[in-house]
Amino acid sequence: MKIDRLLAIVVLLVGKRQVQAKELADMFEVSVRTIYRDIETINQAGIPIVTSQGAGGGISIMERFRLENKLLSADELAAISTALESVSSTYTSFHHGTALEKIRLLVPKEEMSQFRQKTEKWFFDISSWGESSALKEKMQLLHQAIDSANLVSFTYVNREGRTGKRLVEPHTLVLKARNWYLYAFSHEKQAFRFFKLLRMKDVSALPDTYQRREVHLGDLPWEKTWHRPDNMTDITLLVNPSGESMARECFGVEALTYENGRCTASVSYPEDDWLYGFLLQFGTRIEILHPPHIREKVKDLAKQIVNVYET
Asked: Where are the transmembrane segments (predicted)?
């Protein structure tokens, strides 16, 4: 996108005294003529760029307007670099790589050794063990569809195992609880929906385009759908001593109540197959006290599991 390239050029010029137009053209895979048009656009935006011809010439920001490299501290630059490296563990993107290079250009050479030490102190590998290349290819396709505002179609398998075709306007890729999701406007539901990438297959970007809708990602709209009052079921659990540690980790200490030597947990979740599986993972560490129908459902599922292993 042009705006990304313009911003990148400004950042590069902040970190370098001077750069060749050919160097910029090669970096962004455009023509030298396009670079000079970009420079004119940056000038019109109020950032004075000067060009000089001949040996030792190039493009630079006028000295008296040069931005201070200390606009971001070394620790802040290291934190951004670490975050980009970590995201790249599960999502390979050309933009992440070039962004890292731009950040490193802001670090003076004499401070590079200390900068690398800061960035190598932490690494958050958010990828799954043995993560398949198919997931990364799917993410790359969706990433490009979002950039170009192309409709996307795919076959989706929901929690209940029902399969159906979907036509959506892709808006945002979301990493939630170690899983990737697509937040998109569903043409079928005429509303935004959350789609787990692992449940999507036959994903394709269509030539038809859409007008991006206004979303406020800072409000975490998918959380509001999850916690919608009519979507929640109140559950009371008896927590056995062997399960208290696990219950604290999963529910939080605020959900636990101690009375007459017993520990109970009061929680609220949407009721579906995910909930039954979630409760079953506790094994004998918990007992469902309320509501009765969920207690019966989990008991029946446990019996079915036993039958599978007894036959």
From this structure: none
Q: Which two tokens stand for residue 35?
A: 């670079």
The whole-angstrom separation of Cα 179 and Cα 20 is: 42
Inter-helix orientation angle 2-15/94-105, to 10°: 30
pLDDT in tens, 97-156: 556 666 666 666 777 777 777 776 666 665 665 556 788 888 889 989 998 999 999 999
Upstream peptide bond of 170 is cis (omega within 30 degrees of 0): no
Burial class of 213 by CB neighbour count within 10 A (0 to 12, 13 to 18, 19+): exposed
CATH 3.30.70.240 spans which residues of the chain? 229-310
Residues of the chain with CATH 2.30.30: 133-210
Of the candidates 24, 4, 189, 201, the one whose C-alpha atom is nearest the C-alpha of residue 105 is 24
Strands of the sheet containing 150-157, edge to edge, are 191-196, 179-186, 163-176, 150-157, 200-209
Rounded to the nearest 10°, the torsion over CA 67, 70, 73, 78 is 60
- CB 154, CB 200: distance < 8 Å: yes
* Fold (topology level) of 133-210: SH3 type barrels. (2.30.30)
Beta-carbon count within 10 A of 113 CB: 9
2-67: CATH topology: Arc Repressor Mutant, subunit A (1.10.10)
CA distance 38 to 9: 9
Q: How many CB atoms lie within 10 A of CB 107?
A: 21
Which CATH topology does 229-310 take?
A: Alpha-Beta Plaits (3.30.70)
pTM over 0.85: no
Beta strands 233-239 and 256-259 are unpaired
